[in-house]
Amino acid sequence: MSLLTVKELTKSYQSGKVAVDYLSFTLNKGECLGLVGESGCGKSTLARCLLRIEPINSGSIYFNNEPIESLNGRQLYSYRKKLQIVFQNPLAALNPKLKIKDSLVDPYLEYAKELNLSYFSFTSKAAFVKQLLEAVELPSSLADRYPHEISGGQQQRVTIARAISIEPELIVLDEPTASLDVISQRAVLTLLTELRETLNLSYLFISHDLAAVNQMCQRILVMKEGHLIDEFNRRDLFDNERHAYTKELISIY
Ligand SMILES: Nc1ncnc2c1ncn2[C@@H]1O[C@H](COP(=O)(O)OP(=O)(O)OP(=O)(O)O)[C@@H](O)[C@H]1O
């Protein structure tokens, strides 16, 4: 069943640059869909359009069959609760003045009135923080630290814990491991896969790293210069029918 449907989406900037050009795809419920492409191909622009941070020029985006362009006020607030994002740079995503425990409860407090959690439960702030830290395999002793007092891998686990804390339907992972060393990258990808299964999440996993996408995703989209040029099931990655550009990406992976 379709969770997110993007139809003929075009987004250009004032400079005239067409960053996303007539892009169409569907993400199914429970799926991890990979989106790969080199730097500048339009991946982050697409993510910002999905979050309604950037207005689109034409086309449509449907979430649970509802067009998101027409959402405003309360409906937009509700939509944002269902879709969370994890960015490349966790330090930039965390408020430097907040202790980890305060950052962790922030999304919950923002959406508390509308939330009906099924996996986590908020009985007290301390208990909620403990559940979240456990879910992302961090020691509870980190709760009282500030973001700059923990490692990059730990910071990214905190941003993941924030994203899952309100049990969204979809998480956009925008190069979530790009700033991490290889060991932490692997651990975070494994964690994300486990969380998807436990919490019944769906992911749009954006990356320039075909190896990471191949590890995580059931289906893969390939973008080049704003266009979608290839789309296939993971098992067909090495199929001879792949687009020449996909083969080029394979050769460097
Ligand atoms: N605010 C903006 N104004 C004008 N052009 C922009 C803006 N943001 C992005 N672009 C341009 O749009 C194109 C797509 O950029 P985008 O950041 O979406 O690519 P990307 O695939 O996410 O790249 P990266 O992997 O480096 O993050 C690029 O040519 C970029 O220079």
In words, what does this structure look like?
By secondary structure, the chain is an alpha/beta fold. The chain has one domain: P-loop containing nucleotide triphosphate hydrolases (Rossmann fold). The chain has 9 helices and 10 strands. A hairpin with a 2-residue loop joins strand 4 and strand 5. Helix 4 runs parallel beside helix 6 and helix 6 packs parallel to helix 7. The longest helix is centred in the last third of the chain and has 18 residues, at 182-199. The mean pLDDT is 94. Adenosine-5'-triphosphate binds at residues 13, 15, 17, 19, 37, 39-45, 208. Residues 13, 15, 17, 19, 37, 39-45, 208 line the site of adenosine-5'-triphosphate.
Q: What is the CA-based Rg, rounded?
A: 18 Å
Residue fraction in strands: 15-25%
How is the biggest beta sheet arranged? 6 strands, mixed
Domain module tally: 1
Q: List each distinct ligand once.
A: adenosine-5'-triphosphate
Helix content: 25-40%
Order of helices and strands: EEEHEEHEHHHHEHEHEEH
Low-confidence stretches: none
The fold-level CATH name is Rossmann fold
Q: Per CATH, which architecture?
A: 3-Layer(aba) Sandwich
Gap between N and C termini, in Å?
32 Å
What is the CATH domain class? Alpha Beta
General shape = globular
Overall pLDDT confidence = 94
Strand order of the largest sheet: 6-7-8-3-9-10
Q: How many strands appear in the DSSP assignment?
A: 10
Overview features:
single chain, 253 residues, alpha/beta, Rossmann fold, four-stranded antiparallel β-sheet, 36% helix, binds adenosine-5'-triphosphate, P-loop_NTPase, ABC_transporter-like_CS, Peptide ABC transporter ATPase, ATP hydrolysis activity
